[in-house]
Structure formats: C-alpha cells, structure tokens
Amino acid sequence: MSKNKIGYSLLIVMILVFILSYFAINPIGGKNREGDAGSLISDMTLDEKIGQMLVAGVNGTQMDEPTKNLIQKHKVGGFIFFSDHLKNPEQTVQFLNQLKEANADNPLPLLLSVDEEGGNVTRLPGGLTHFPTNQKIGNANDPDVSYEVGTILGKGLKEFGFNLDFAPVLDVNSNPDNPIIGDRSFSPDPDIVSELGIHTMKGIQSQNILSSIKHFPGHGDTSVDSHLALPVVNKSLQELESLELIPFKRAIDEGADLIMVAHILLPELDDTYPSSLSEAIVTDLLRKRLNYKGVVITDDMTMKAVADNYGMGEAAALSVKAGSDLILIAHDAQKAVTAMERLKSAVKNGEISEERIDESVKRIINLKQKYHLDDTQSGEVDLTELNQAIKSINSKISP
C-alpha cells in the first residue's frame, strides 16, 4: 500500500473517531448535553433561570392552558402530581406525555415528580398492589428487602414516565404523638432508619430515578402536622446530631442527590424562620456542617406552616436567600407565577444576586444531566411484572 493511501486511511479513521466522540457527548436531538451546564446558563435569560427553580402543581387530569403557560412561557423546572391528577395508567401516561411534548422546544427536560413512598402514601393510579408501610419494612430490618423496594418503586415510576420520587422518608419516629410521620418512618432507631433508608434510596437511583430524601432536618419529633400549622422542635444542635441528623448525614455520605427541607421551626438554631426559609438550617447546617453539595428542595410552600405566615412570593425569596435551589409549589399555577415574579424582582433590586440564582441553576442542570433525563414519551404500561414483584415483597414482610 502506498504512503498516500496509508495517510488517507489514517485521516479517515481520525475523522471517524472525532465524529463518534463528538456525538457521544452531544447526541443528536438530545437535551441536556453532558458538560455544558455553564454554557447553558450563559445562554439563559433571568426568567428562564428562575423558571428552572420552580416545581409547580398541575390542575385536573390533562394539560390545561395555565400548565402549558408554565412550560412554554415560564420554562418551569418541573411538576408535582397527586392522586387526584392520576386516574388510571392510560390517562397518567397521556398526561405526562402532553407535558413532555409541550416542553419539546425547551433545552432542559422537566422534573416529573410524585410522593411514592409505599404504604399509605402512594400516588400512582389504580391497578398497582400496595407496598407494606415503612414501619413494617423497618420491623423486618432487612437491607436487601429495602433495596428491592426502592428498585421496584423506581421501575414503577419509570413505567409511567416519572423521573423524581420524593422518597424515602428519613425521619426518625421518636415521638409517638406525631400526627404526620408515624408508619411512614422505618423506626425510632436512627441506625435502622439510616441503613434501610439508604438502601431504598439506592434502589430508586438504580432505575435512573431521582430520589429526594426527606424531611430535613427531621420531622419525627413533632406533635403538629406542618400541612396544618407550624411545628416547633425545641432541640439543640447537639441533640439533633445525636438522633434526627444521623440518617441524613449518612445518606449524604452515601450519595444523596436531592434533599427536601421541612417547614419546622427549630428555635435553638433559628428562632425566626422555619427550616425551609432559614439560612441557619439550609446553608450553615446542611451545606456547611454536613458538607452537602447537592440540590435542596423545599417542602410544598402551600402547606399552612408557611402559607399562613408568609406570602408565596416572600416565602420563595426567603428560601432562595436561605440556600434552597428548588421551590415546590403544588396545586396552584398562579402561586408559582407569583413566586417567579417575586424572585425576578428580588434580583432586579439587588436583594438576591444573579450569581446566587446561577449557583442553584447549575446544581439543577448538573442533576438533570447526571441522570440523563429527557422528555422521551412513555408507551403502554404493563403492571403485571410490577405487581408480582410487590407481592413478593409483601410475602417477605410480616403482617
């Protein structure tokens, strides 16, 4: 073979290697290309960046104009769904596909989320066998079972087209009078909560579903439901570190990507603001003391613990100043718009720097990239295999 032919062949090989390498990093038609978070942010308007920081509620059982407006005008980061929105498998898949289609021209995919904890807190529509409660799983105290539960939860969510589960619950059930946690917790023992919670989290993550551990810094020792009023926990930092914070710290060390912060007041740490709005909790405790680098999301801002004490826009601004990345506002599209308008005003008047917004948006983009999220539409749901797997779990747990 002549030198010219050898050189030509080498050139062709080099070109092919370059092309293949390029498209491995920049897939055709793919959103959320790896490694370009900074570039994406530099191309985004302030409105688009603020939109990414909102996880909003939906109305009804199909996409309506307010929801479409949140996607196409405000570029929201995602949505949360409740049982009222999800009537059956076919309708659920169709609803999520409508949102994905509406988001097709946006550069970042939607977070599509539910509270699918198992037990009594389940959102997925009829036809699915129920899991045992976390308390029953905790009584069995088998990490392999917990990992299997997480895996099945993740598979179920993926089947319908969701990509984010607000689970597992890492609250230590230390107060028998607690009206909201109860059997949602694995145990009053922080070691059991840690081990089973982490295995559940990793099982969910194994299915490429985001897992948000909750409710930081611990909702287990409250006697008030934060959906109805503001709970107060009179514990020192040392007391929290000896119980409530143990599962969260261990989960952070084991790769927690997303943490939901509760609406509870801890006067020993911050006597003014609930945890979700508190810099002392979100930044000083969670980010600095526990060295958490991931995404922080608030609990639902429409809960009365916040809604009865703050306007929606003010709560959103306080939470971002505290260090939160994602603001969760369920049920009402207009409240999400109000929050976005207030955040934009806060940046314009210098109350919040745009650099602070960029910090959160970078974390959000990196998380979406890490899990290779996209808006690929889902097909027909087959619950047979899932139900068999759930029944197998139930057979391993004592009634």
Q: What does it look like?
A:
- The chain is an alpha/beta fold.
- The protein has one domain: TIM Barrel (Alpha-Beta Barrel), CATH 3.20.20.300.
- Helix content is 47%, strand content 8%.
- An 8-stranded parallel β-sheet has the order 7-6-5-4-3-2-1-8.
- Residues 15-34 have low confidence and may be disordered.
- Pfam families: Glyco_hydro_3 (PF00933).
- InterPro entries: GH, Glyco_hydro_3_AS, Glyco_hydro_3_N, Glyco_hydro_3_N_sf, NagZ_Beta-hexosaminidase.
Features:
globular, 47% helix, eight-stranded parallel beta sheet, 399 residues, alpha/beta, TIM Barrel, 8% strand
Topology:
Blueprint: H1 3-25, H2 37-42, H3 46-52, E1 54-57, H4 65-72, E2 78-81, H5 89-102, E3 111-114, H6 134-140, H7 143-160, E4 164-165, H8 190-206, E5 210-216, H9 237-241, H10 245-253, E6 258-261, H11 279-289, E7 295-298, H12 304-307, H13 312-322, E8 327-329, H14 333-348, H15 354-370, H16 384-396
Parallel strand pairs: 1-2, 1-8, 2-3, 3-4, 4-5, 5-6, 6-7
Structure summarized in a few sentences:
This protein has 399 residues and is of the alpha/beta class.
Could you name the CATH homologous superfamily?
Answer: Glycoside hydrolase, family 3, N-terminal domain
- Structural class by SSE content: alpha/beta
User: How much helicity do the residues have?
Assistant: 40-55%
* Overall morphology: globular
- The total tally of domains equals 1
Low-confidence stretches: 15-34
**What's the Cα radius of gyration?**
22 Å
User: Number of helical segments?
Assistant: 16
The top-level CATH class is Alpha Beta
Main β sheet profile: 8 strands, parallel
Average pLDDT reading? 90
Strand order of the largest sheet: 7-6-5-4-3-2-1-8
Order of helices and strands: HHHEHEHEHHEHEHHEHEHHEHHH
Cα(first) to Cα(last) distance is 76 Å
CATH architecture: Alpha-Beta Barrel
Strand content: 5-15%
Can you tell me the CATH topology? TIM Barrel
Total number of beta strands: 8
